[in-house]
Structure formats: C-alpha cells, structure tokens
C-alpha cells in the first residue's frame, strides 16, 4: 500500500528492541517498553509557512529517528504497525 502523509506529517515504523539482554536473559513481552527508535517510511511535502510556501522536512525516507514513547497516532497498514507523527514530535536523527 502506498501512503503519502500530508503537510509536515511523517509515517514511522518502530524499530524492534532486543529480545534478550547482553547477559543472555530473555525479556518477556510484559516487561518490554515501547521502542523509541523508528525508521522513516514516508514524509509529507513539508510545513506550510505563514507566507503560504512549503519548508522541506529535515528527515527523509530511510532515516532512523528518536521519538517519544507515546508520540503520534498508531495505525496498522497491511498488518504492520506504523506511527504517524508531526515533524516537531521527532527528537533526533540517529547518525550511524
């Protein structure tokens, strides 16, 4: 399914966290927290400024970003969980 968010909205797919600790302990589902890292799947055209022009977004498809645990709106598309956030909800871009 093709999805194009509007304005300064961004579609993200949360990055799965490790199933075990570094010491080899398996983490049960009930103890896991929501991941804060996510991959950018789609971006909108940009933020509309007061003069009516668009300002391009700072993120692009494929970037790994940091978001708040409870940021955005969760949606399920083709059986995959996604989060739709505004650009201002993204805290940082991860450089690897």
Keywords:
10 Kd Chaperonin, Protein Cpn10, Chain O; 40% strand; mainly beta; elongated; 96 residues
Named CATH topology: 10 Kd Chaperonin, Protein Cpn10, Chain O
Radius of gyration (CA) equals: 15 Å
| CATH class group | Mainly Beta
Question: Helix coverage percent of residues?
Answer: under 10%
For the record, the CATH architecture stands as: Roll
H-E order: EEEEEEEE
Described by its quaternary structure, the protein is single chain
- Strand-pairing-aware structural class: mainly beta
Largest sheet: 6 strands, antiparallel
Average pLDDT works out at: 85
Strand fraction band? 35-45%
Question: What would you note in describing this structure?
Answer:
The protein has strands at residues 9-14, 37-43, 47-48, 54-55, 64-67, 73-77, 80-86, 90-94. It is mostly beta strands and 96 residues long. A 6-stranded antiparallel β-sheet has the order 6-7-1-2-5-8, with no helix packed on it. The model has no long low-confidence stretch (mean pLDDT 85).
Give the gist of this structure.
This protein is mainly β and 96 residues long. It is 0% helix and 40% strand.
């Amino acid at each position: 399914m093709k999805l194009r968010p509007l304005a300064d909205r961004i579609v993200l797919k949360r990055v799965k966290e490790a199933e075990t600790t570094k010491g080899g302990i398996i983490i049960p589902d009930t103890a896991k927290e929501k991941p804060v890292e996510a991959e950018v799947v789609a971006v909108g055209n940009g933020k509309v400024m007061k003069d009516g022009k668009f300002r391009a977004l700072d993120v692009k498809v494929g970037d790994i970003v940091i978001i708040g645990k409870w940021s955005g709106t969760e949606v399920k598309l083709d059986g995959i969980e996604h989060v739709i956030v505004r650009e201002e909800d993204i805290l940082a871009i991860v450089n690897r």
